[in-house]
Structure formats: structure tokens, C-alpha cells
Design brief:
With 128 residues, the protein is mostly beta strands. It folds into 2 domains: 31 residues, no CATH class; 92 residues, OB fold (Dihydrolipoamide Acetyltransferase, E2P), CATH 2.40.50. It is 13% helix and 46% strand. It has a 6-stranded mixed sheet, with helices on one face. The protein has a two-stranded antiparallel ribbon with strand order 1-2.
């Protein structure tokens, strides 16, 4: 054992089971649920609608291509909203988040401003 801190290694060469992890695993029934890490889609349907969330970063989402019917991945912006990870793959929203250079953990309000053709235009407001 390395420094008496590692009890075992699992398939991932970087994941070691420590005594603290082993102890914590025996007390899981005493813990409360903190956050659901399975992302859910968040959509704003009408101009003027908004949500407030913590910027969680960028991810990818799988969608069905409307032309070919095949599945493809596309970038999405992720937010922590009411203890859930919510994602939106709107091209304009992902672009706004990228251009703004938002750091993970930044509180924001996302507002659907208007629709131009099929493109939804969003505004980002920093919350303090």
C-alpha cells in the first residue's frame, strides 16, 4: 500500500479506495440526496421567459437529426437550477456563453429575448 492510504485500486488506474471512502460507503443510508447529476433539458418557449442558474460549463447532448433521422451530438450549455443539472443546446445560447467567457460557478439569469427565423436569441445577465 502507498503511504497506508490506499486499500485497493479499481479498473481506473487513478481511482484508489481509501479508508475514508470505505468508511463513507458503510454510512450511505444516513446521507440525504444533494443533487441529481443526470441532466434534463430546459427550454424557454416564449420571449420574455427566463431562468436563473449557476453556470455549470459546457457538455454535449444527443439529438435526432431532423433531416437524416440519425443521432448526432451537439454542444450544450449546462446550468445548476434548483438542485438539478439543466442543459440547453440552443446555438445562440451556447455562443453567448462562449463569447462571454463565463466561469463555471457563475450565477446567471438567462432570458429568451426573441426569435429570428428558427434561431432563439438569448440574453445573459450576471447575478450578484
Amino acid at each position: 500500500m502507498e503511504n497506508n492510504q490506499q486499500l485497493a485500486r479499481v479498473n481506473d488506474g487513478n481511482a484508489a479506495i481509501t479508508p475514508e471512502m470505505l468508511e463513507a460507503s458503510a454510512n450511505l443510508s444516513n446521507l440525504k440526496t444533494a443533487i441529481n447529476l443526470s441532466p434534463e433539458y430546459i427550454e424557454l418557449a416564449k420571449p420574455g421567459e427566463s431562468f436563473r442558474g449557476i453556470f455549470w460549463g459546457f457538455t454535449e447532448m444527443t439529438v435526432n437529426d431532423q433531416v437524416t433521422g440519425e443521432q448526432r451530438t451537439m454542444p450544450a450549455a449546462a446550468f445548476l437550477v434548483d438542485k438539478c443539472i439543466r442543459i440547453n443546446g440552443g446555438v445562440a445560447l451556447v455562443s453567448e456563453c462562449t463569447k462571454a467567457g463565463i466561469d463555471k460557478g457563475t450565477p446567471l439569469e438567462v432570458t429568451f429575448k426573441e426569435k429570428k427565423g428558427n434561431l432563439k436569441i438569448y440574453s445573459l445577465t450576471l447575478l450578484a
